[in-house]
Every structure is written in C-alpha cells, then in structure tokens.
Amino acid sequence: MNKYFRQFWLFALLIVCFKLAVHAQQKQYEPPALSDPNSWTMILLPDPQTYQKFERNQPIFELMTAWISENIDKLNIKLVMCTGDLVEQNEIINPNGVSVNQPSKKQWEAVARGFSRLDGKVPYMLAAGNHDYGYSNISVRRTQYNKYFPVDKNFLTQKGIREVALNAEGVPTLENAVFEFTSPQGRKFLLMTLEFAPRDTILSWAKHTLAQDKYKDHTAIILTHSYLNSKNEHIEKENYKISEGNYGAAIWRKLVQPSSNIQLVFSGHIGAPDNVKAHVGFRQDKNAAGKNVSQMVFNAQALGGGWHGNGGDGWLRILEFLPDKKTVKVKTFSPLFAISPSTQHLAWRTESYDQFEFSID
Fold first, then answer.
1. pLDDT single digits (tens) 76-89
2. In the chain, what are the domains?
3. In this predicted structure, what is the pLDDT of residue 262?
C-alpha cells in the first residue's frame, strides 16, 4: 500500500469518525421534560426587543411562544414571565433600515401577536422596560404598553389580577400590577410587575400591598426590568433622562430587603454582543424575615449576532418547581436550535450559571 493510498484511507477514516461523533452528539439530545411528574413549570422569556425590530427576526419569537403553547401540558406550564423591553422603540415611525427596519407600530403588533399564541392557555406577566417608553428609549414615561397589552388581552392573566397601580400618565395598567397564583401543591404566590426604574410612589404602593394581612402567607415574586448586573450586583444608577426612578440597589433597599415575603426577583436588561455571561446573573440575600431572596437576571438579546443579530438564538429559561414546594431547578433552552436534528446538540446551555437549582423558604 503506497503512501497516497494510506493517506486517502486515513482521511476517509477521519471523515467517518467525525460523522459518527456528530451523529452520537445529536442522538444525545433530549427534549425538555419534568424531573418529577408532579412538578410545575414557569417559563422566563428574556427581552424580546431585537426579535421585534427586524422583520426577519419576528418569526423566531413566535416560534418561542409556539413552543411554550405546545408544551403547556407536557411541562405543566402554569406561568410565563417576560423581563421587558418588549420593543426596541416605543414611538418611532421612520426606522433607518440598518439598526432597525420596523416602525414601532409593527414592533408592538409583532410582540402582541407572539404572546397571542398563549392567550386563553396560560397566564403571562410582562415587565415594561426602558425601550417601551418615550420615543426610541426612555426620556419620558409615555408608553403604548396598555394599547397592546390591555387587561383583557388574556383572560387567564386578567383572572389572576388582585391589585393595580396608576402609571405615570395616571392610568391603571399592567405595568404595575399584582397577580395571585396557587401552585398545584397549594403554595400561594403573589406576582408583582413593576415599571422600569419604578417611581417612589410605586415602591410605596408595592410595599403597602405586600404588607396587607390577606397576603402575609403568600410567597412574593417581583418582576422588573433593571435590577442586577452581570457581576451579580444590584444596579446603582443608570443615565436615563427621567427625573425620578429607582434601580436595583434602591429597589432592594426600599422594597425587597424590608419585606417578609419577597423571595424571588426576576429581571433582564443587561447584555453584550455574543457574550453569554454578560446576559446573566444570580445572587441570594436575606430579607427582613431572614428568608432567602433568590434574584435572577436573564437576557439573550445580543446573542446570535450582537445588537443587529437574530434576537437571541431563541434562548429561554425553564424553571421547574418541585413537589417539595421548595426546590427550583433552572435550565436554559433554545426551541430555535431544538427544531432541527442538525442543531439539536446546541439546544441546551449547561454551564453552572445556566443550569442550577436553588431553594425557596
């Protein structure tokens, strides 16, 4: 056997081994499933703005909500939460075609259409982010949020509403609202959405609401847009033109830490082009009652090609609440990668900051 013949067979063998390795890797894919059949699931969606600002990306967000719809029974999905920045711009009418090619009306219509797949199937709570206010970014607290997500959009969400505050325009909307939910195991939850950089009046309303006797036995969850950075620190201050607002450190100091029943805080907002760790964070602190407060930031908007990319590679988080009423398992999954056998091996992120568990008291 001459050396050219040997080299040919060596090359062919390498190709076969490579294909076998890829095939084996693909065969290892397992779709999301409950670790315990008696668990229930919450889905956490990151900032959708980059999906909405380009027409080509809008179907990816619809794929994500369609996947949630298809898996409601399989995963026993009881709640969906979204971290805000539903759109890239609240009121722009002349997109430049480069950084964004959809006017705000089309962006709001697209995100509302995506969530419509869940209407009547599962309740969802949506934070209002800085990009959901003003013209292209928050300068005034004017928003089209209530036009596209009115109280009656999803009757299952409406069914759970218990308290609502006035927004900056003096209108009661879901920007600041309280929802009640009882888990299949009987644990009572109070879910509270807070506007971007909530005003002092909103934090006072939230604190007063949580202190009511009828909610003293509930586990409270706060959903707000800006709270933690990627170093797991409470955000101190951001340079927006609004005259009044509270960011992570102030929200912690004025509302979360003094409480006796807030045990979970979810947020988004942060990110850097194609840097997974710049989009996530997690920390635990004690509230005034000595209970652990688990605080999670999850975003993906600059993954999949940066600020002008595909919107975030379809990443979402699956939070499985186990029947012991305490343990929560966190997994990070992409329905976008999962739809094709050629990309299914990319559908899970399994680093320690993407796949972990924690306990609620």
1. 999 999 999 999 99
2. 36-359 (3.60.21.10)
3. 98
